[in-house]
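Structure ticket #2291
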Amino acid sequence: MPAYTMPGLMTGQNTNDIVKKLVELERRPIKRWETENEYAKMQIQIWGEVKNLTTNLQTKTRALVSFTAPFATKSVSSSVEGVITGEASRAAKSGNRALEIIEMASKHQLSGVEIDTDIRLPEGSFTVYSGKSKETVTFPGGGLSELSNAIKNMAGSLMDASIIKIDKDSSIITLTSVKTGKKNQLQFSDPNGILKLAGLVGENKAQGEDTKQILSLDGTKAKAWDTSKFKKSELETDKLTQSEEGIFLKPDTAYTIPIAVTEIKERAFFEVEVVGEAPAVMELGMSFEKEGSVRNKFLPITKTESKYIFQAGDLATDKNLTGIILSNAATTPIQIKSVTLVTPEAPGTAEPLKVLQEAKDLKIKIDGVEITRETNEGIADVLEGISFNVHKVTEEPVTLKIHVDHAKGSALIKEWVDAYNELMKFSKEITSVEKNGKISDKKESDDTKATDISRDFWDNKSKSGLLAGENSILRLIASLKTTANSYYPATKENGFRVLTDIGISTGAVGSNWEKIQDGLLQIDQEKLIAVLSENPDGVRDLFASDPNNDAKMEEGVGIKLLEILKPYNQYASGIVTSKVKLLEESVAGNNKKIKEHESHLISFESKLKQRFLYMEQGVGKNKSVGNYLQNNMFRGNGGE
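Resolution: structure written out below.
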C-alpha cells in the first residue's frame, strides 16, 4: 500500500498504523474476556485444592472414627530384648507376667546313609505322614535327583528334600518337615522299598492293629449337662438308667459321666454304639484336662451304621480324658450299648535310619504354668487378646509386658491435626481481604507471577485472596472452628468432652490472641501420649460416640466434622463441583465470544483498510486537482 498521508489530524501518520490502532481499540473486549478466563482458571485450580484438602481431612477423620482406629492397640514385649514379640487387642489386659521359654518348637530333620550317587531306584510309591496329613508319592523310577523332585512336587506340603554329595561317588538325602512340633514328625510307609534303597528308612513292617478300650461308664455318677437346653435332665422321672444292656437316655436329657483318667493319643477317637432306633445326628462330647483345668467339647456327630465316631485326638492329643457327655434331643429314648476308645497304630511302618533333630513342641511357662504348643509363631490361644512369637530360650525368667501402644493413635491424631490445619490455612488465605502473612507461611519471593495478566491484577492479588468474600468457604472456616472448640457428651466414665482435654488446642494459656484467633490446632504431645496410655477408649469416643446406644455413631468431633465436609465433596451436587462447573461454563462462554469477536476483527480490519484506501485515493485526486487549479490560476494572473 502506498504510504500516502492524510491531511489534518492524519498528517504524518501511516494508514497501516492507524488501522492497527483502531483494531486494537476494537480488541479490548477480547482482552477483558481473556482476563476473566485467566481469573476463572485460577479459581478452578483453587477450588480443586479445596477439594483435595477437604477430601484429605475427610479421609483422616474417617480413620479416627472407624471401629478399627488403633487408639487402644496394645503391644507385647519382653524385658530381655529379642525373646518375644507380638500384638495385643483391646481385650488384652495391660500388665506384666512372668515368662520363661524352656524349649523352642523344632522341625523333624532326618538323614539317609551314604549311597551310590548313581543309584537307580525302582518304580513304585510310598506315603509320608505328618500330623493329621498324609501324601502319597508316585515315583516313576530314576536317580536321587528324580526322587528329590518327586518328593518336592507331591509331598512338598509336608517335607522338603535335599541331596548332599559326600564325594564323587557317594551322596545322602536329607528330609525336613515343613511344620514344627512333636505331632508333625515325619513317618513313612514304604511298601516298594524305594526309601530303603535311598538309605532313608529301614524295613517296612506290617501295619499294626488298632488298640480298643471299652470305657467303663458308671451311670450312678452321671450329672445333668446343659439343663437350659436339655430341660428334663434334672427330673427324677427322666433320669438316666443303666442295665447290662447298656445306658438308656430319655428324650430331652443330657449327662456327663466320669471315667477313669485315660490318655488321648494322636488320631484316637471314641465310638458310641447304639441299639435300635437313634437319630441321624447326636450331640456328643468329652471332658479332658488341659493346663490344670477341665475343658469340655460338645459337638453334633453324624451316625455311621450303628455308631457315632467322635474324633477325640483331633481336639485333645496327649491330654487326659476324664468324662463322656451323652445327650438325646430326639422324641424317643436311646439305648447306648457301649463307648469304646480306639487308638490307631502309628501310620509309619518304616523307621527312619538317622534322626538329625527330633520334632519338639514349644515349652513355655507363664506365671509358673507350663504350656506346650506346636509352633513358635502366632500363638494366640494362651493369653486373651494376645498373639505372640517366641524367638529364643531364656536362661532365667523374664517379664512379659503388655501395654498400650500409643504410637499408632498419636500418629493418627497428628495426621488429622495436620490435615485440619492445612485446610484452615488455605481457606483463610484464599478468602483474606487483606493478607498480612499471619496465616500463610508463603514468602513474597515464592510468587513467580508466571501467569501475569497485569501488574494491577497481581498487586490486588497480593493484598487479597482470589475467593475473598466467598460465603461457602467462610462458612467452612467458621464451622471448622466451632467443631474443634465445642463440647461433646462423654459416654464413658472419665471420658473427654473437648479437644483440650486430650492436649489439642488453638494455643496454650497465655498465647498470642491473634494466633489463637487464626484457629490452627496445636498438640501437647506429652499430654496426648498420657491420655492415650491411660484412657484410649475415651479418646476414641471424643471423636465418635454412640450416646443413646442405638449402634450408630452420632456424636463426637469426627462425626460432626464429616457432616460439615460432606456437602463440599459430593460428586454430583457438591459445593466444589458446582462452583467448578459454573467457572468452566463461564470460560467456555468467553472462549466462544473471543472466537466470534476474532472473526469480527478480521472483517473489521479488512473494511478499515478498504476505506482508508478509498480515502487516500480521494485525497490524491483532490491534491492533483488542487495543484492543477493552483498552476492555472498562477498562469492566468501572470498573463494579465
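Closing remark: Residues 575-639 form the longest helix (65 residues).
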